[in-house]
Amino acid sequence: MDFNFSEEQSMLRDTVASFLRDRYDFDTRRAITRSEAGWRPDYWKAFAEELGILAAPFAEEHGGLGGGPIENMIVMEEFGKHLVVEPYLGTVVIGGGFLKHSGAPIAGEVIGRIIGGEAVLAFAYAEPTGRYNLADLSTTAKKDGEGWVVNGHKAVVVGGPWATHLIVTARTSGGQRDRQGVSVFLVEKNTPGVTTRDYPTVDGARASEVAFENVRVGPEALLGPADQGLPLVEQVVDEAIAALCAEAVGCMRKLHEGTLDYARQRKQFGVPIATFQVLQHRMVDMFMNLEQSVSMTYMATLKLDEPAEERAKAASAAKVQIGKAARFVGQSAIQIHGGMGMTDELAIGHYFKRTTIIEQAFGGVDHHLRRYEMLTLPQAA
Amino acid sequence: MNLDFSPEDAAFREEVRRFIADNYPASLRGKQDEGEELAKEDYLSWHRVLAKKGWVAPAWPTEYGGPGWTSTQRYIWSEELARADAIPILPFGINMVGPVIYTFGTPEQKQRFLPPTLSGDIWWCQGYSEPGAGSDLASLKTKAERIQGDDGKEYYLVNGQKTWTTLAQHADWIFCLVRTNPTAKIQEGISFLLIDMKSPGITVRPIITLGGEHEVNEVWLENVKVPVENRIFEENKGWTCAKFLLAHERSGIAGVARSKRGIERIKSIATVESEDGRPLIQDPFFARKVAELEIDLTALEFTELRVLASESAGRGPGPESSLLKIKGTEIQQRITELVLEAAGHYGAPYFRGFPTDGHNMFPIGPDYAHRAAPTYFNGRKTSIYGGSNEIQRNIIAKMVLGL
Ligand SMILES: Cc1cc2nc3c(=O)[nH]c(=O)nc-3n(C[C@H](O)[C@H](O)[C@H](O)COP(=O)(O)OP(=O)(O)OC[C@H]3O[C@@H](n4cnc5c(N)ncnc54)[C@H](O)[C@@H]3O)c2cc1C
After folding, report:
1. Which of B347, B330, B212 is nearest to B269 (CA)?
2. pLDDT at residue number B181
3. Interface membership of B219 toward A (CB under 8 Å)
4. B7-89 belongs to which CATH class?
5. Do A88 and A196 fall into the same domain?
6. Residues of the domain holding A89
7. Structurally, how many domains does chain A consist of?
8. What share of chain A is helix, strand, coil (3-state, %, to 5)?
């Protein structure tokens, strides 16, 4: 057993951390989120060319650095500390995950373009109804000669406005919520019949509603097996959950650290508010929540390559821990900042908003408790 | 002891319900439920309707323009307002400075300020907090020195900064706590001043809050001349008014009726949202949280009724109101959490300055989701303002438990 990072992994963290320290301070981030584009394509290019991090979790045969989940965890935690909006999660973790695991013929080529910073991916899985059930799909793909025709509406596609490609889950057979009959497609966003409505999100990112109207794609668009795509979707979503947990840890570190600093410096009744025991205990609880979250993030990340059931259990367990911790740590940070916590001027509120969205992403605490129960409790005969 | 409403109470309920249905401005319908930010005119339009009817200040004595309702009637009234999803009446004039003026003011001050406060012609804001004086309000530094004006009259020259001043951007007048004696013990050198916001030397700067709202402000006072007759009560006795006002501020803060409405709303949202083919409200996890919330609210409601009963037996709002404030705000915050959870994916889109309609092909989620996240963010304020919930617990520990 070893919880140390390798030398390469420590270097990766240092590289990312120093780039963000120099070029992604809070004011820069604010300017990015308020800009027309909402992200910095030149930073993305720098991620590809200067830092090489877009290659981190890919195999060397695809031009990657041969890393995996741990590398994603490191990048995501650093991104969390700076509230980076650029779509590493959608492109590298999720998009890259689908391409890697599907073994699709075009995977190598598209991964190459991800690594080069040319291909930006977004995950179009949610729909206006159905909430967090990954198999609850109204979007359909019908066989059309060699290829497919896609129809449907995808909701809140995070990073949609910046994407060149969409990963789309669709029903190719079976009923509305059947586990069978789910397939995954890679669709170029400029394919005729794809229309989007772009908008900002409360945590400073951008998203799109995406409509597919008789969108024709070739046979190469299919990622993974036709009709039997759900296990692949679940695997990649678990990987995304682990990465989000790491991002949340980065955010929570900042929430905790920022709150301690503030409480030491803010005086009321002639003393720093950090001397009030009720606040001390709350900051201790924040600390314990954070430490438990770090542990669960490691646990889930290290189990991503285990058999499906073990992996799913780990991901859901981590998501429950992070969901509860994110809420407690975020709310406590605001509370201890008093009125200052309510202002949009301070970074603290923005970490709180991001952790709020992470808490719900891919299902909140209830959703993952239910999934965990189904996976672990003996079922009555 | 009984829980019955008398036939008169039932008739009263009918009457006010009908009045609200007939007179609530059509332009405001739905705005409260969706958590929309309200314009100045929104607040005033409803205020004026109630002022005209004589119902805008239910707790005021009749001699100053109150309707003379019993505490039961006031309770029914707040229930009916919430039931109709009516926007709140701003507390600054009606619940805060009004009672201070009729309790501590001179006859001239009452005559000058109470009628326009009732009619809505004066919009008040509360100038208590300062950058260095939040929970420790008595350490406030804004200073007021007596000077002789060129006209030979006496004035206070006020200098300092107030902050978190809610809706000061709309206000006609601000009631301020200022330091008139810098050498006395801190509570003993404070006075209560009414200041015209049009006075030279006042600058209002917006503070934008988490949900993107412009709700609070910084108010800078630079050599502002305030006639001495605008002081309420004795010089250096302002803390008495301040404490009186804070107790009144807290008693309205439980918001039971509004929270009931909030829970109804969660239930209706959770009937529409569905996961795994069944409505969210049938999800045992979610249903359990709603039930717990409702039970906690019932406990709060009956606690409030007990406090009201003892108040109508002649005791003013006491430190028990801290309990109502803590529990009331915790419940309000849990309601916003559940709405956000129920909103699902569509909790994420941010609509400020962004058209939500006129785009039929792409509605961005259901209406109830549009402000779920900003409302949740904004709701964090309730455990901070009006005396933070930590401070309220300190008050109970000291004043109720004698610790
Ligand atoms: C949205 C909003 C609207 C407001 N509107 C108005 C308004 O219209 N007019 C006005 O005058 N003010 C207004 N306020 C100010 C409000 O009253 C103050 O924010 C509040 O009193 C807390 O003060 P503070 O923000 O300085 O926090 P601080 O006093 O600095 O408190 C910071 C933290 O320390 C805790 N703390 C402080 N002292 C103790 C203690 N002794 N023991 C334990 N914990 C302690 C607090 O509970 C809090 O968690 C508003 C505030 C907000 C957020």
Report:
1. B347
2. 96
3. no
4. mainly alpha
5. no
6. 7-119
7. 3
8. 55, 15, 30
Residues 26-85 of A with CB under 8 A from B: none
**Of A119, A143, A162, at which residue does a domain stop?**
A119
Beta strands in A137-283 (DSSP E): 140-144, 147-158, 165-171, 182-188, 194-200, 206-217, 222-223, 267-268, 271-272
The CATH number for A103's domain is 1.10.540.10
d(CA B148, CA B130): 27
Task: Find which of A131, A169, A197, A265 to mutate to test the B interface (most B CBs within 10 Å of its CB).
Answer: A131
**Cross-chain residue pair B209–A343, CB shorter than 8 Å:** yes
Contact A333 CB / ligand 1 (< 6 Å): no
Query: What's the complex ipTM?
Result: 0.97
Q: In testing the pocket of ligand 1, which one of B130, B135, B241 has its CB within 8 Å of the most ligand atoms?
A: B135
B351 φ, ψ (degrees, to nearest 5): -105, 0
Any A CB within 8 A of B403 CB: no
The CATH number of the domain holding residue A301 is 1.20.140.10
What CATH number does the domain located at B254-399 have?
Answer: 1.20.140.10
pLDDT in tens, A92-111: 999 999 999 999 999 999 99
- Claim to verify: residue A235 and residue A374 sit in the same structural domain: yes
Does residue A297 form part of some domain?
yes
Average pLDDT for B307-326: 77
How many other CB atoms sit within 10 Å of the CB of residue A346? Answer: 18
Q: Chains A, B: CB contacts under 8 A, how many?
A: 145
Q: Pick from A128, A131, A201: which is nearest to B348 by CB?
A: A201
pLDDT tens string B337-378? 999 999 999 999 998 766 555 566 677 999 999 999 999 999
Q: Is residue A306 part of a domain?
A: yes
